[in-house]
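Q: Here's a chain of 353 amino acids. Please give me its 3D structure as tokens.
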Amino acid sequence: MATVPMDFGSENTSPVHPAYVKAVVEANAGYATNFEAEPWTERALESLKGLFETDQLWAFTVSTGTAANAIAIGAMVPPYGSVLCHWDAHTMTDECGAPEMFSAGARQIALPGEHGRLSREALATYLREARIGVVHAIQPSIISLTNLTEAGTAYRPDDIAGLTEVARKSGLGVHMDGARFANAAAHVGATPAELSWKAGVEVLTLGTTKNGSFGAETIVAFTPKYNTSLAFLRKRSGHFAPKSRFLAAQVQAYVDDGLWLVNAKHANRAALRMAEGLSSIAGVSLVHPTEGNEVFASMPPSMSDALETAGCKFQRDWRLHPRHNRFVTSWATADEEIDCMLDVCARAAQPAS
């Protein structure tokens, strides 16, 4: 077993960044009013308005990404509606039907696209044939985009604007799952505003957990039309935190001093180092471009075995067509971990003597 951690299972396995720890500890001094009637939430809201360059912003904090997505989608979609998303979207593959439950029965419709990005042509084709307005048919209500995608790729502002243009022509709303929003922005080089409301996004679920926090996700609305539903769904589902200052303090830390971008850039650089190293090893091929902090690699089973034997943590057989593994880097990933992992792979690639 290697002494170097080599933990690439998820950002959720990494330690909490010291800035988030400091923010929570400082917020723990004395008493404070509950349920967001305290200065931490007010300050965090103002910081988010600055980050996204708009006063037209409303925020609803929760503790998990699944809750954020499900509440957001539930507020935007009626029971007879549908959510159009990529077939590999996190809401589709990893949230146990939460969006369907929170919308009281709306359906998610899986659409294709290369490397995790929803195809504009596929979206337009589906909407042309969707029987919009016909009472016998489920009614398309929103599109949901994931940025970074579940394939670790990033949408650029023009990509998002093109999809939202198609959606708006048919009267659909636009939701974005931004669990790794910072990583997407770091790769693309766009501002948070350019990757969200300026490109047509109405509601963004902004994640800080994968950026190194204890667990604070924010439903960011760029229009007030969903605010009543968002507020009541959050409360009714038990996700309106009474000690809200500790969530708000983490959101504030995310924004302060550009921590969101610093952590994302570090994680992205670590993933690129890994991807470049794997590409040079015989028998290994990358399944998707590395545009964020995830690496998807096809490799011989013997190499996967060698990694597991060495104590490396990763998602084996992440998808089966083609069969490949997922490796995730974080703000805490060290070059030493990556180099050790690459060394294990290189040794496993050598022919037996």
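Q: Can you summarize the key feature?
A: The first helix runs from residue 18 to 27.
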